[in-house]
């Protein structure tokens, strides 16, 4: 299937290769996560049923081994975890076009585990929609079976990022830093505004352990707002959509 069939109007310079979109990869990520949780609870349930250290100890070691080796083994041997396979995804080595090596697969897991969902933010700032763990291991995620790939799930190279009118990287980084500092100041002022607006009590502001449940909910929402702001500034700034480093129309 050509990229034209996947994403109308996109003309990537890499031979028509398509790359998985964010939502597709996130679904695969969460499916694998659910499977791992189910494995842990299943192992715990079996261990409790037997009630014997002679069973629980080797069973626990087996579960741990499976959790650690699950993705590296499947990705290096087959190019996909169960989550990847369910969503028609395949991890591809940039240099060979085949599966990544076991070492690379391990590195991907370590980076993804440390960064969590934040590793996927860079997908909006890279031409080939690469997460941080993709970039650091020189890999991409492509359709496992291009013939059955849904146009809504994959896209070609993001040529907007190499538009001739795009500001320099240094300028975009400088603008992103400036906006982040401004956002931090605004967010901090807003934090004190929660007290002024009587949304949280002075005691809660001074000692979070004394906060009531509604106040904890307000703080949680406010923390999410902070994260969303940081992420959007990075994405829009790198794509040349912030004042001070806007992409010139061509």
Provide an overview of this structure.
The structure is a single chain. It is built from nine helices and four strands; from the N terminus they run H-E-H-H-H-E-H-H-E-E-H-H-H. Helix 2 runs antiparallel to helix 3, helix 3 crosses helix 5 and helix 7 runs antiparallel to helix 9. The strands form two sheets. Strands 1-4 form a two-stranded antiparallel sheet. It has a two-stranded antiparallel ribbon with strand order 2-3. It has two domains: 157 residues, no CATH class; 76 residues, no CATH class. The protein is mainly α. The N terminus is likely disordered.
Short account of what is shown:
This protein is mainly alpha-helical. The protein has helices at residues 3-6, 22-50, 53-78, 82-86, 102-115, 132-135, 169-196, 202-206, 213-238; strands spanning 19-20, 89-93, 139-143, 154-155. Helix 2 runs antiparallel to helix 3 (53-78) and helix 7 packs antiparallel against helix 9.
Strand residue percentage: 5-15%
Q: What is the domain tally?
A: 2
> What is the C-alpha radius of gyration, as a whole number of Å?
23 Å
Report the sheet with the most strands, covering strand number, pairing sense and barrel closure.
2 strands, antiparallel
**Strand arrangement across the biggest beta sheet:** 1-4
Shape: flat
| Unreliable residue stretches | 1-13
Structural class from helices and strands? Answer: mainly alpha
Helix percent reads 55-70%
Distance between the termini: 30 Å
- Spell the H/E element sequence: HEHHHEHHEEHHH
Roughly what is the average pLDDT, rounded to an integer? Answer: 88
Q: Count helical runs.
A: 9
For the secondary structure, the number of strands is 4
